[in-house]
Amino acid sequence: MALEWLAWVLGATVIWGFGTLAAKPGTDRLGSRAMGLGTTLVEGVAFGLVGLLLPRSALPSNPLYLVAAVSAGALGAVGYLFFFEGMRSGTVGLVGTISAACPMLTVILSVALLSEALDAFQVVGIALIMLCILTLAYEPKRGSASRRAAVLLSLAGFFVWGVWGFLVKASVDALGEGSLDLLLATGYLGVTAGYAVLRRDHRTADDPPSRRTWALGLFVFLAGGLSAVALTIAYDLGPAAAVAPISGTYPIIATLAAAAILKEKLDWRIAVALVAFALGIVLLSGA
């Protein structure tokens, strides 16, 4: 099916949208170390299991594809570490939206280095989705040190996740989905092991998290693994220049869920973002 990739990327977007919503209370209660380790571990295991289940072709003779795939896994894990560290001092809207802008970098690299082409309607669709992200990202300036730290950590996540998307797309055709997933798992689990050793947990055990809190954290862990696997399949089936912008709209899901569940107020930014998102999806899909 020509648009099978669209179903996979929309699934990944919805899953991680709700994962982003749960990430803030989860990080506040469990800490960034537990959230980062849990998410990267589950995601690494998920990639490994999928890689073992899928058929695998012979590895290419060019070792750069292998390096690119393992590097992509490492960058994907590092992006989560930046994400959860940013959640310690930032909001879902700030950290989630800046991180979601990573498709901008993926698109630029894919068009420039992979010779992917866009028609006029897809260009407009990407512009509308980028407008959606930028509209949600706008907030009045606050000079606090915690907000500056959150912005810097989010920008770091934006960079590494943008390169992650490009490396996945650049290597998936040569490696195939099965081999790619196994190599991604290697990168994820390598970073997870290193982070577990280097990043100490300074929280006290006087007030241990409840079962409900751990259940919230588990949901975030599983959401990260499921959405990442779905996204790599979307990159395998579709053009990165279209997959990346759609995947970056997950803050809309988180924002709508926050309004419904957490009773957060909707404003003009949300209305503009939703209109831009809907039009952008139609144009990108070619419907």
Using brief descriptors, characterize the structure shown.
globular; 287 residues; mainly alpha
Topology:
Layout: H1 4-30, H2 32-53, H3 63-89, H4 92-100, H5 103-113, H6 120-137, H7 145-198, H8 211-237, H9 240-247, H10 250-261, H11 268-285
Helix pairs in contact: 1-2, 1-3, 1-8, 1-10, 2-3, 2-7, 2-8, 3-7, 4-6, 4-7, 4-10, 5-7, 5-9, 6-9, 6-11, 7-8
Summarize the structure in words:
- The chain has helices at 4-30, 32-53, 63-89, 92-100, 103-113, 120-137, 145-198, 211-237, 240-247, 250-261, 268-285.
- The chain has 287 residues and is an all-alpha fold.
- It has one domain (4-200, 208-285).
- The longest helix has 54 residues, at 145-198.
Please summarize the sheet with the most strands. none
Order of helices and strands: HHHHHHHHHHH
Amount of beta strand: under 5%
Mean pLDDT: 83
Instruction: Please state the structural category.
Output: mainly alpha
Identify low-pLDDT runs.
none
Molecular shape: globular
What gap, in angstroms, lies between the N and C termini?
14 Å
Q: Percent range for helical residues?
A: over 70%
**Number of helix segments?**
11
What is the number of domains?
A: 1
| C-alpha-based Rg, rounded | 18 Å
Number of strands: 0
